[in-house]
Amino acid sequence: MTAPFPTHRQEEWRYADLDALQPVWERFAEPVTLTVGAGEELEEVWLPATDDAQLRRVQIALGEGAKARIFALNHAPVYGRIELEVSLAEGAEFELFGANIGTGLSTNEIVTNVKHVGPGGRSRQVIRSVLNGKAVGSYLGKVEVARGAQQTDGEQSVKAMLLDRGATANCKPELEIFADDVKCAHGATVGELDAMQLFYAESRGLDPASARALLLEGFVMGLWDNVENAAQHDAICTAAKSALRSVV
Amino acid sequence: MTVNERLFEAGLMDKYDRAVASGDTKKINRILAKVGLEFRDGSNWDLDPAFYMLNIKDLHASVDGKPILKGVDLIVGRGEVHAVMGPNGSGKSTLAHVLAGKPGYEVTCGSVLFGGQDLLALEPHERTAAGLFLGFQYPVEIPGISYLQFLRESLNSQRRSRGEAELSAGEFIKLARKQAALLGMDAEMLKRPVNVGFSGGEKKRAEMVQMGIMAPKFALLDETDSGLDIDALKAVGAGINRIMRAPDKGVLLITHYQRLLDYVEPDRVHVLRNGRIERSGGPELARELEREGYAEAAA
After folding, report:
1. Structural contact between residues A66 and A86, judged by C-beta atoms closer than 8 angstroms
2. Nearest to B200 by CA among B184, B235, B224, B176
3. Which residues of B touch A213 (CB under 8 A)?
């Protein structure tokens, strides 16, 4: 039986484009499950496709001391959703480096629920959104620290750059902590391109569009610095640069 | 020898400046004739780019409706270094920003010719491609972009718009290393994000490295000397002389203090005050200002 179709009343679907989701729901109703055994490592690089609606709904179970690194570029023409539910056993590490690059009327969102179940786990989420036109880019990120998950180190860094007045960024880092010895940092900013930086770049000879593209590269491309697989690193850099060119 | 040098040697510079400011072409031509320069027929000889690099006429500019420049007249001849000095708030930085095309300034009157081109009609990047370089008083930090990438893309963008071939990554790195070494800057710093974590002195040195890489025709240096220790000041001064002292180049040094002028001897010194050039003279004027202060010297 297919899971019930979501509604905007559900917090994790609050900003979703349900009209775009409707025709493809059957395919994505059930999340994919990835299990990373004790001490093992996983690296995933997720690139955008060309479909109107693109979803990745993934559950990751990290065993003791397991590590997962996800690099995700969310850049769907109509609706893109990257949804992660991650559980961390003792000493596990989870890192997500994600970008929403949205143009026109598109909605791109990254929705995470990171559950620190065992002690000494570490999670780090770095999200950058670049939006033009009337595009919507969202990050809804919940970090749960269970009662026994002492010495958890959780970090959420969320920044959005709005290129037009009509663009919207939703940033919602959320913490639910039941342990008393944890470190959970989160920061969220929404801004626009810096006029001084633009003038500096233009005064060095870059035309306004190239100057904007370069500053946006500076804002986004650092996300991919730690991709270990060289071919995948090149692929996501190329895809991100081309996505940025489409929003400048 | 440039026009201004001839005039200066003949002791006619002040007369000449006054004549230019008054716009009296007959008078200008009479003075020019005295130093063996031919009459230019027509009334717009001073618009001939053979004579000047930068020709500012009656420039008025406002910020947020408030007039800052109130009729600046200034001609920098080929091969010349001019210094613009003046007290705080006199409009020095505004002059640099208006010339480089920084948004937020409204030119309400006047004209600026750069090698025969209407400078004010060009976008900032077009001014740069035409050969203008602005050295920033406060160089800007750009996180996430290395100096090497920033400068290579900038230089190649300039070269494309001039119809010149782009430099390959290898060619560019060679050029950048050479210029960094000439300015006494560790080339490794060029791998770091633009100006991020640079000290004040390092930023100014990096501006000069950029000037060396861009090899502009004309440099507009906005208080490049501020915040420099003595070693950096010497290096920056030597850099200006090496890169910009040439018969086909020109420099407008905007500065508050005389000390940079110990290393870069200007051909002409102008005092900007209340949005106008109040006095012009030779290098001795800078020393006089240093000795007596702006208030005394103006009297």
Report:
1. no
2. B224
3. none
Here the tokens at position B197 are 């974590």
Q: Tell me the CATH number at B187.
A: 3.40.50.300
Residue B263 tokens, joined: 């290393």
Q: Which helix (H) or strand (E) holds B121?
A: none
- Residue B50 is predicted with a pLDDT of 66
First-to-last CA distance in chain A?
44
Looking at the structure, do residues B29 and B94 belong to the same domain, yes or no?
no
Among B145, B156, B61, CA closest to B103:
B61
Query: Looking at CA atoms only, how far is residue B269 from chain A in angstroms?
Result: 26
The full length of chain B comes to 299
| A134 token code pair | 């009337």
pLDDT at B48: 63
Residues B42 and B84 both lie in one domain: no
Asked whether residue B39 falls in the same domain as residue B159, the answer is no
What is the C-alpha to C-alpha distance for residues A37 and A65, in angstroms, rounded to an integer?
A: 9
Domain count, chain B: 2
Residues A73-120: pLDDT tens digits?
999 999 999 999 999 999 999 999 999 999 999 999 999 999 999 999
Q: Any idea which residue has 């489409």 for tokens?
A: A246
* Cα A12 to Cα B86: distance, rounded to the nearest angstrom: 61
The reply to whether B101 touches chain A by the CB within 8 Å rule is yes
Q: What is the pTM of this model?
A: 0.86
Query: Which residues are B218's β-sheet partners?
Result: B132, B250
Residues B28, B97 within the same domain: no
Give B135's contacts in chain A (Cβ within 8 Å). none
Going across the sheet that includes B117-118, the strands are: B66-77, B52-63, B105-114, B117-118
